[in-house]
């Protein structure tokens, strides 16, 4: 199988649809620009977004180029374990809102870094900003490269000009529109993605003779026997229990800490609207994920029927190959628009996340009394700068930046999630514990991964590359050091610690909606010690050789 | 039960429900898998994984939304009843924290 097999013949059809959707994104951005008057409009859409639009935008931010391309291939390569891995990613926004999103909304912050700054002070804020910028940059560089590859591989355009032009075009519309433009564009992009995945999939399943074609997410059960005939081990669990435990530790806890998702929730018009985002988000993401599994199944079934074994490179393009085989060419061109929508929506969320951390949280911490007009100007500079810097990094990215994004989720679970979640639920967590826990566990995660010191790497192969084996050690360390470090510091630093505790009590109680400070709520130590103790067996399990 | 306890309990219960629904792989490890037991044509462990991990999580989210809205009303009621004397009146927490952070 060669490149010609997955490229559409009429390049102008693909280009035409791509140009049309980008023109629409620019129109939405220009309209939004006229409604952006303050820095709050630019960073959090003036906290005016309703649950329906916000849920579509959040779901869209979650989808990436991989949703259409890599995931389908990985289902074919890893089989059921990959489905288990992917399924639980839906928990990101529900757990985020449940555990801290609603509380952060109440206190009026713009990002998780902003919260860390308020809760623990500047130094902890800079540390959190460092981790989050690294995670988002890894994510963003991957998406920029992915979009350029879409133009190169699917439309046959040269890679470098594709990368430069697409990155500048995307940076342009996101900078013009700010968070408002990005939100409405993301919502539109999510609709495009759902249509581009599910409608052509129904047509493909119908032509394959699948009886449940009219509901692709669950209608492909007919293919199970054919699939088992071809791959008898498809539904086997394959990995040891620790792998499944690592999915919770590295992925569930990692994705709930992702700053770009938290920022989406913070654009909600009310706290109830923020909560309403969750079920709608589950609906959209659930439909997309189920559609992706169906596409993976259909790919395995189709190539089994024609007796062809796909190379990994060709497996990546299964969605396109199936569309080209069963649907008219204009449908494939629309699917390419869906792939691009998935990539640019992720970039939009990340760019605004990075720009808010740089322009608002970092620059703003140096000049807290800056007039809003200047803040707005800095915001636009930060947005455009983020796009340009990401483009420059994407031209020749350092190897560590193009490792799997799953590895970055493990870093987030280790260095970010404990300080944010514990800071919302306990007044006893203080700046010393938060900084120590985040710095020690984050550094440990990097050092034990196979990318920096391969000789010290924990685990081998896929589980090490994705950060699962390391996260089983470093996430427990992150929680335990944050908790015990805070409690020890409380005794060591006497009066200073009392001042910290008093401030935390006032902030935390208000974050949960209480009008008066009792200094008793969220103040217990017992549950923190129990939580630490619960992490110990996980840590011991993680230390066993894989 | 006062609203504070309800907040803790509901967070733990809904959090645990979410984890169970989206991590059925851990359950399948202990129950074992049998491809001959099918629902809608799928082996049951696969069916449960994809349905509970999407529709199941959505249903729990709807229930949590209802519960959290009611709980917020209860917190507001307790706020209304709470004696203001003796307790520190809540200042603007963000401003206070900002001051501390500096």
From TrEMBL, chain A:
Superkingdom: Bacteria
UniProt keyword annotation of Transmembrane present: yes
Any one Pfam family match given in the protein's UniProt record, by short name: SSF
Keyword set includes Transferase: no
Entry membrane topology: Multi-pass membrane protein
Keywords: Membrane, Transmembrane, Transmembrane helix, Transport
PROSITE patterns: NA_SOLUT_SYMP_3 (PS50283)
GO MF term list: transmembrane transporter activity
Listed transmembrane segments: 12-31, 52-76, 82-105, 126-147, 159-179, 191-215, 243-261, 281-304, 330-358, 378-395, 401-424, 431-454, 466-489, 525-543
Cellular localisation: Membrane
Family, as annotated: Belongs to the sodium:solute symporter (SSF) (TC 2.A.21) family.
Protein name: Sodium:solute symporter
TrEMBL record, chain B:
Residues that span the membrane, as ranges: 12-32, 44-64
Domain of life: Bacteria
Biased composition (Basic and acidic residues): 78-87
Renumbered residue ranges of the record's region Disordered: 78-102
Keywords attached to this entry: Membrane, Transmembrane, Transmembrane helix
Protein name: DUF4212 domain-containing protein
Originating organism: Stappia albiluteola
Upper lineage: Bacteria, Pseudomonadati, Pseudomonadota, Alphaproteobacteria, Hyphomicrobiales
């Amino acid at each position: 199988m060669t490149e010609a097999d997955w490229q559409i013949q009429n390049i102008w059809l693909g280009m035409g649809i791509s140009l049309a959707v980008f023109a629409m994104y620019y129109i939405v951005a220009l309209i939004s620009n006229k409604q952006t008057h303050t820095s709050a409009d630019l960073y959090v859409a003036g906290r005016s977004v309703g649950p329906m639009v916000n849920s579509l935008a959040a779901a869209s931010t979650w989808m990436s180029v991989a949703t259409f391309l890599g995931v389908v291939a990985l289902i074919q390569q890893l089989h059921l374990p990959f489905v288990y891995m992917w399924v639980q990613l839906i928990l990101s926004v529900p757990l985020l809102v449940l555990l801290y999103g609603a509380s952060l909304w109440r206190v009026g912050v713009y990002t998780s870094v902003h919260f860390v700054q308020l809760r623990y002070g500047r130094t902890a804020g800079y540390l959190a900003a460092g981790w989050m910028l690294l995670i988002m940059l890894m994510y963003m560089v991957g998406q920029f490269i992915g979009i350029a590859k879409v133009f190169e591989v699917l439309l046959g355009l040269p890679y470098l000009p594709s990368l430069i032009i697409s990155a500048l075009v995307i940076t342009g519309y996101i900078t013009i529109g700010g968070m408002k433009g990005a939100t409405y564009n993301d919502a539109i992009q999510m609709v495009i993605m759902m249509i581009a995945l599910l409608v052509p999939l129904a047509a493909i399943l119908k032509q394959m003779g699948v009886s449940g074609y009219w509901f692709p997410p669950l209608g492909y059960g007919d293919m199970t026997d054919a699939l088992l005939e071809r791959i008898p081990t498809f539904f086997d669990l394959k990995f040891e229990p620790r792998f499944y435990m690592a999915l919770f530790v590295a992925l569930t806890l990692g994705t709930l800490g992702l700053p770009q998702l938290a920022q989406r929730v913070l654009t909600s018009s009310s706290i109830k609207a923020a909560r309403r985002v969750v079920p709608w988000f589950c609906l959209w993401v659930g439909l997309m994920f189920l559609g992706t599994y169906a596409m993976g199944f259909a790919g395995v079934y189709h190539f089994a029927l024609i007796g062809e074994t796909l190379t990994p490179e060709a497996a990546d393009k299964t969605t396109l190959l199936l569309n080209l085989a069963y649907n008219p060419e204009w449908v494939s061109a629309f699917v390419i628009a869906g792939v691009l929508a998935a990539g640019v929506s992720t970039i939009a969320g990340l760019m605004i996340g990075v720009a808010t951390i740089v322009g608002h949280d970092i620059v703003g911490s140096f000049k807290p009394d800056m007039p809003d007009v200047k803040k707005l100007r800095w915001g636009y500079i930060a947005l455009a700068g983020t796009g340009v810097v990401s483009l420059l990094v994407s031209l020749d990215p350092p190897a560590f930046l193009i490792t799997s994004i799953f590895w970055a989720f493990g870093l987030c679970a280790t260095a970010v999630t404990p300080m944010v979640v514990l800071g919302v639920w306990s007044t006893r967590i203080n700046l010393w514990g938060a900084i120590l826990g985040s710095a020690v566990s984050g550094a440990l995660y990097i050092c034990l991964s196979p990318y920096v010191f391969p000789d010290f790497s924990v685990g081998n192969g896929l589980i090490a590359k994705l950060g699962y084996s390391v996260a089983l050690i470093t996430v427990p360390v992150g929680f335990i050091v944050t908790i015990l470090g805070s409690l020890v510091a409380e005794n060591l630093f006497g009066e200073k610690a009392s001042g910290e505790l008093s401030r935390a009590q006032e902030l935390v109680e208000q974050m949960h909606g209480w009008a008066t400070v009792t200094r008793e709520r969220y103040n217990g130590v017992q549950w923190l010690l129990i939580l630490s103790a619960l992490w110990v067996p996980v840590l011991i399990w993680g230390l066993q050789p894989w | 039960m006062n609203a504070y306890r309800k907040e803790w309990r509901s967070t733990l219960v809904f959090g645990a429900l979410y984890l169970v629904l989206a991590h059925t792989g851990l359950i399948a490890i202990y129950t074992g898998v049998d491809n001959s037991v099918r629902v809608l044509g799928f082996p049951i462990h696969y069916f449960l994984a994809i349905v509970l991990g999407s529709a199941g999580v959505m249903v729990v989210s709807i229930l949590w939304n209802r519960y959290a809205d009611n709980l917020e009303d209860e917190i507001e009621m307790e706020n209304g009843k709470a004696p203001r004397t003796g307790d520190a009146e809540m200042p603007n927490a963000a401003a206070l924290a900002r001051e501390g952070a500096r």
